[in-house]
């Protein structure tokens, strides 16, 4: 099935991703990959920002944690939108650490976040490759009988 | 001197003793290390040694020492020792003898001296000299020795003692006396020496014999052995060639000497193990190699005991085995422990095996769970496309012409065929239900089948049935009044508009979305050619049963399970929950709704209402080929037209097979109030009912009033039947006068018509057509099939004035996803990225709904909402301006008051909250929000939200 939730991703991605896939149709055939690419782009920016935040946070205090919180909210929001469950969870922990002004916790969380993000990215790439192959394979007969249940 | 000798001797003895022990006595590996007697003599005296266990056949021992190498060797050693000791003694004695003889010589020498002196005297007198040979050694010795001594000692003495004149008488006398004295002393010394000699001889005699010494040592060793072995559970024995005991040491003897010595094991004991032990010994004897074995005895004598037996052969000088030494140690406890251990180990192994098995099982279970999960996911996948596909347009709803009565009959027939219970299945299709409608027959049949089989499943007696009748358009529509008006207008309108529409379409035209399946397309093309009109009819279908019913509290969850989102619940509730969920979804996707009412223990009724297109008169074209083209499965050929209109089916339980009632056919003929348009059709129903295997009975269950009402239009129907060749338009005209029909149909006019009608009213025909085109394009791209969207009346009224929705979110991804979802749901939305922008947007546009993220930069959603609410209450944007929002106040003439008024209606603002965030619902409400949807946004909650807040 075209919309299969790829099993390789099952750990890091939840049902929300299905929602994403459902949004993909003839009018926006690359919707999922577009969204995910933007997500990657945004996430990398956010990760950079977060790393900076973590470095700056030593001397100055409150405002930087607040900034970190904003970045994390962003990250969390977009991650949950694409169903990146694990990344989101790490974000939640990260934010908890930042709310307590816990720099060490933040650094740990950042590390974990970067790891999870990379993992997710790899998995999604895999998924897209598989999907692509499947679409290519399915492409031949697809137009003929699309309606039959 | 004697004292010296004594010490010498002891030392010698010591040497002897240490070297007397046998052979392998290198110092390192001594078998016996016995303390020297005297060093710690007392040690063993404190120990009482029970010597009794030692039973020895001495004769045999002699034999052994004589014949076996070892014995021989030991004996030789002993002898050697003894010899050495003797030699030593002899040496000592000899030394003593030498001493003595020396002394004697001295004495003799002295004597000779004296004699010589005498002779000298005599010589001087008589000259009587004894001739001494020169060759005589002794003499020589004497001569050489004596004079010197005499010179040294005696002469001096003489000189001292004799004062008298030499050679005088006095002198000689004195000299004689002196010599006499010397002689006396010499004799005395001789006597002492003799005494001493005797003494030493006596001493020699008194000395203990080495045999005694040896036996003492042996005894000590023996004592030590006993001491060491006294408590050991050990049996030591020697058996001869015939395996007769010659020696046995057993600390716990239970038998006397006479019972053992000279007997074999078998002769002594009886019971298990005895024979084995004997055989084992014999084996060792034969093989000539020592061996160990564990043997468990079960004898009367000492019960059940296990012995570890060591048996070694004993060889004669000739190399022949002449017996065995055997040593046994009782290891019963150890064996028991060992066995216990073995048992434990075995149990552990079994446990381990079980564990492995369990692990395997767990693994398998996990696998199957995974498989299940996969299945769940798969079913999710299967389901999702069903909805997704329909929504997205990848898989479109089929618009097929079909006959509701046949579908009902078919479903019931199928159910009856596999029925296992005594249930009556009945179907009742109201007369006002068109004979033929357009819809997705496959899915409708699927829903119906599902509901019926569900009903049968939960019904144990009574009946299950289907009612089909036409209803008003569902009252859920907000602008019902106006819509009705629209429709009323539509009804009166000529259909030229739609014709134009359809004629004008090409492949790319969005209008064609109406007809998605090929069949329908073909059909509709023909329709178009015949200038038909389309209408919509809402048909309600009740599937009722007299089953167990559904508890009231379970009803809300009945459909919801699936809604909560798939994998989990699907797994939990299995297939049952799924069917209903799918049904509901399907119904909703087709623009209808599915409900349930139930009384526990009395039964349930599932009701779904769906809109169907009706292409009225033209559809009743008499061309059977055309019909079979479009709907071949239902059209089997021309038959009795009347059967088309029979709306009552009863399937009695098989045992109650009934006869076909001829009456029904006539009755059916009468039941044609509005079926005039479809009179020329197949006789499938009749065919089926006439077939001998069928149990179908057409019952006349219609009430009289139905019959009566049916009677009126009959004429018309016949009339129409005759007018087959009339154009569809003419037919339509013909049908118009039939108020009954029109009255029924016009509330269900195709909404697109109504839309068009409205635009007509607006006198903006071209724009309107374009707009509709756009809307349809939208519908297509959003995956809503035209069939669905156009017939889904709740959406259509919105269509004319598309609800404006504002999304306020700073997150790109969220915006993308939400936007795309809304697109699929048929809405275009405006997007702004923070609260301030939202306020400005609301100020300059009329939105019907605002979706507001809570956490945003610049201005958060809560504040923005507050400001908007403030404006709505006060009519001024002062608060917003105070808050720093750059607002361009409209010039007084730019907008009419009315619009301002309109704007000031309270806009529903819906918060989008992430559950993980601390944004609480209370906070949202407190700031004037109407509701909230939790992120991530899903189709389901977005749809619910829109349904709730969009009019």
Oligomeric status: heterodimer
Class based on secondary structure composition and strand pairing of chain B: alpha+beta
How would the global form of chain A be characterised? elongated
- According to DSSP, the number of beta strands of chain A is 0
Main beta sheet of chain B, described? 7 strands, antiparallel
Uncertain stretches of 5 or more adjacent residues of chain B:
1-32, 37-41, 123-160, 380-389, 391-395, 476-532, 561-577, 618-642, 656-800, 893-902
Q: Low-confidence segments of chain A, ≥5 residues, pLDDT <50? A: 1-5, 142-149
Ends apart, CA distance between termini of chain A: 12 Å
Question: What does the model show?
Answer:
The complex is a heterodimer of chains A (149) and B (951). Chain A has 149 residues and is mostly helical. Chain A has five helices and no strands. Chain A has helices spanning 16-22, 31-56, 62-82, 85-99, 103-139. In chain A, helix 2 (31-56) runs antiparallel to helix 5 (103-139), helix 3 packs antiparallel against helix 4 and helix 4 runs antiparallel to helix 5 (103-139). The radius of gyration of chain A is 18 Å and the shape is elongated. The N terminus of chain B is likely disordered. Helices cover 55% and strands 14% of the residues of chain B. In chain B, 34% of the residues are buried. Chains A and B meet through helix 1, helix 2 and helix 3 of A and helix 11, helix 13 and helix 30 of B.
SSE arrangement:
The complex is a heterodimer of chains A (149) and B (951).
Chain A: H1 16-22, H2 31-56, H3 62-82, H4 85-99, H5 103-139
Helix pairs in contact in A: 2-3, 2-5, 3-4, 4-5
Chain B: H1 2-19, H2 42-45, E1 55-56, H3 58-67, H4 69-125, H5 137-161, H6 169-206, H7 210-229, E2 234-240, E3 245-250, H8 257-260, H9 265-268, E4 271-272, H10 274-287, E5 291-299, E6 303-315, E7 321-330, H11 332-392, E8 400-402, H12 404-417, E9 423-429, E10 437-439, H13 441-457, E11 462-471, H14 480-492, H15 496-504, H16 518-529, E12 534-545, H17 555-563, H18 566-589, E13 593-599, E14 603-615, H19 616-619, H20 624-631, E15 648-651, H21 662-670, H22 684-690, E16 696-697, H23 704-722, H24 728-735, H25 739-745, H26 751-762, H27 765-781, H28 786-791, H29 796-800, E17 805-808, H30 812-824, E18 829-832, H31 835-844, E19 849-853, H32 861-874, H33 878-882, H34 897-903, E20 909-914, H35 921-926, E21 931-935, H36 939-949
Parallel strand pairs in B: 9-11, 17-18, 17-19, 19-20, 20-21
Antiparallel strand pairs in B: 1-3, 2-3, 2-7, 4-5, 5-6, 6-7, 8-10, 9-15, 11-12, 12-14, 13-14, 15-16
């Amino acid at each position: 099935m075209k919309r299969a939730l790829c099993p390789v991703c099952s750990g890091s991605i939840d049902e929300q991703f299905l929602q994403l896939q459902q949004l993909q149709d003839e009018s926006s055939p690359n919707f999922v990959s577009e969204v995910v690419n933007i997500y990657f782009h945004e996430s990398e920016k956010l990760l950079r920002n977060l790393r900076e935040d973590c470095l700056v946070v030593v001397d100055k205090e409150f405002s930087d944690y607040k900034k970190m919180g904003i970045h994390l909210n962003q990250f969390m929001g977009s991650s949950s939108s694409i169903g990146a469950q694990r990344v989101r969870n790490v974000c939640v922990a990260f934010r908890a650490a930042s709310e307590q002004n816990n720099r060490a916790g933040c650094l740990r969380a950042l590390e974990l976040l970067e790891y999870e993000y990379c993992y997710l990215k790899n998995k999604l790439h895999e998924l897209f490759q598989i999907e692509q192959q499947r679409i290519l394979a399915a492409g031949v007969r697809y137009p003929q009988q699309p309606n039959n249940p | 001197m004697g004292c010296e000798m004594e010490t010498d001797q002891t030392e010698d003895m010591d040497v002897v003793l240490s070297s007397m022990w046998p052979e392998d006595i290198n110092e390192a590996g001594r078998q016996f290390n016995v303390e020297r007697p005297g060093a710690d003599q007392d040690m063993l005296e404190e120990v009482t040694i029970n010597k009794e266990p030692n039973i020895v056949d001495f004769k045999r021992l002699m034999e052994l020492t004589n014949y076996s190498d070892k014995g021989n060797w030991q004996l030789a050693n002993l002898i050697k020792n003894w010899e050495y000791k003797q030699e030593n003694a002899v040496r000592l004695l000899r030394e003593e003898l030498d001493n003595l003889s020396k002394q004697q010589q001295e004495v003799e020498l002295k004597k000779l001296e004296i004699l010589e002196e005498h002779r000298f005297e005599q010589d001087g007198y008589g000259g009587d000299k004894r001739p001494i040979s020169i060759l005589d050694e002794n003499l020589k010795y004497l001569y050489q020795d004596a004079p010197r001594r005499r010179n040294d000692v005696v002469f001096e003495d003489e000189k001292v003692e004799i004062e008298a004149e030499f050679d005088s008488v006095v002198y000689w006398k004195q000299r004689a006396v002196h010599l006499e004295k010397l002689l006396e002393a010499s004799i005395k010394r001789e006597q002492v020496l003799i005494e001493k000699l005797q003494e030493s001889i006596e001493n020699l005699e008194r000395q203990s014999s080495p045999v005694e010494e040896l036996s003492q040592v042996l005894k000590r060793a023996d004592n030590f052995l006993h001491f060491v072995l006294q408590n050991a559970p050990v049996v030591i024995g020697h058996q001869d060639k015939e395996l007769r005991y010659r020696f046995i040491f057993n600390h716990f003897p239970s038998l006397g000497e006479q019972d053992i010595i000279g007997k074999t094991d078998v002769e002594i004991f009886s019971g298990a193990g005895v024979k084995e032990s004997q055989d084992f010994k014999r084996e060792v004897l034969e093989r000539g190699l020592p061996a160990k074995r564990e043997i468990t005895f079960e004898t009367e004598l000492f019960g059940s005991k296990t012995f570890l037996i060591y048996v070694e052969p004993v060889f004669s000088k000739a190399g022949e085995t002449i017996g065995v030494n055997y040593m046994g140690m009782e290891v019963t406890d150890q064996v028991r422990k060992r066995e216990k251990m073995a048992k434990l180990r075995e149990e552990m192994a079994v446990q381990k095996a079980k564990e492995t098995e369990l692990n395997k099982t767990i693994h398998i279970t996990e696998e199957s769970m995974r498989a299940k999960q996969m299945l769940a996911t798969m079913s999710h996948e299967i389901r999702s496309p069903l909805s997704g596909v329909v929504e997205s347009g990848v898989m479109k709803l089929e618009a097929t012409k079909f006959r509701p009565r046949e579908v009902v009959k078919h479903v019931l027939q199928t159910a009856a065929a596999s029925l296992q219970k005594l249930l009556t299945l009945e179907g009742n299709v109201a007369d006002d239900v068109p004979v033929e409608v357009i819809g997705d027959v496959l899915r409708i049949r699927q829903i119906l089948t599902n509901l019926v089989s569900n009903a049968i499943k939960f019904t144990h007696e009574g009946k299950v049935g289907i009612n089909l009748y036409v209803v008003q358009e569902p009252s859920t529509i907000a602008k019902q009044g106006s819509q009705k008006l629209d429709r009323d207008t539509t009804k009166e309108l000529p259909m030229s508009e739609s014709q134009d529409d359809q004629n004008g379409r090409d492949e790319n035209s969005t209008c064609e979305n109406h007809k998605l399946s090929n069949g329908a397309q073909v059909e509709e093309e023909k329709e178009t050619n015949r200038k038909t009109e389309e209408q919509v009819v809402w048909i309600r279908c009740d599937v009722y049963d007299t089953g167990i019913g559904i508890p009231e509290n379970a009803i809300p969850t009945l459909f919801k399970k699936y809604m909560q989102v798939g994998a989990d619940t699907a797994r939990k509730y299995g297939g049952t929950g799924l069917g209903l969920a799918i049904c509901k979804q399907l119904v909703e996707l087709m623009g209808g709704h599915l409900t349930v009412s139930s009384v526990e223990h009395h039964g349930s009724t599932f009701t779904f209402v769906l809109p169907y297109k009706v292409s009225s008169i033209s559809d009743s074209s008499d061309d059977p080929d055309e019909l079979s083209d479009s709907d071949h499965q239902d059209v089997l050929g021309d038959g009795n037209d009347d059967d088309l209109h029979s709306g009552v089916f009863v399937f009695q339980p098989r045992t109650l097979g009934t006869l076909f009632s001829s009456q029904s056919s006539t009755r059916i003929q009468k039941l044609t109030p509005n079926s005039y348009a479809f009179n020329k059709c197949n006789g499938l129903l009749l065919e089926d009912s006439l077939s001998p295997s069928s149990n179908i009975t057409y019952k006349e269950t219609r009430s009289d009033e139905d019959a009566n009402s049916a009677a009126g239009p009959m004429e018309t129907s016949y009339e129409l039947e005759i007018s087959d060749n009339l154009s569809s338009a003419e037919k339509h005209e013909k049908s118009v006068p039939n108020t009954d029909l029109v009255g029924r149909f016009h509330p269900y006019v195709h909404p697109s018509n109504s839309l068009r009608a409205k635009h007509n009213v607006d006198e903006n025909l071209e724009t309107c057509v374009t707009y509709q085109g756009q809307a349809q394009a939208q519908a297509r791209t959003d995956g809503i099939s035209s069939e669905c969207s156009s017939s889904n009346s709740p959406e259509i009224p919105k269509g004319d004035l598309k609800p404006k929705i504002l999304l306020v979110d700073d997150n790109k991804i969220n915006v993308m996803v939400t936007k795309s979802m809304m697109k699929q749901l048929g809405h275009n939305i405006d997007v702004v990225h923070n609260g301030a922008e939202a306020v400005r947007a609301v100020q300059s546009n009329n939105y019907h709904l605002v979706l507001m993220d809570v956490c945003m930069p610049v201005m958060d959603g809560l504040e923005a909402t507050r400001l908007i609410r403030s404006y709505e209450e006060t009519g001024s944007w002062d608060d917003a301006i105070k808050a720093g929002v750059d607002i361009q106040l409209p010039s007084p003439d730019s907008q009419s008051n009315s619009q301002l008024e309109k704007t000031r209606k309270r806009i529903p603002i819906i918060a989008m909250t992430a559950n993980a965030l601390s944004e609480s619902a209370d906070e949202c409400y407190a700031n004037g929000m109407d509701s909230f949807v939790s992120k991530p946004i899903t189709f389901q909650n977005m749809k619910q939200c829109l349904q709730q807040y969009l009019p």
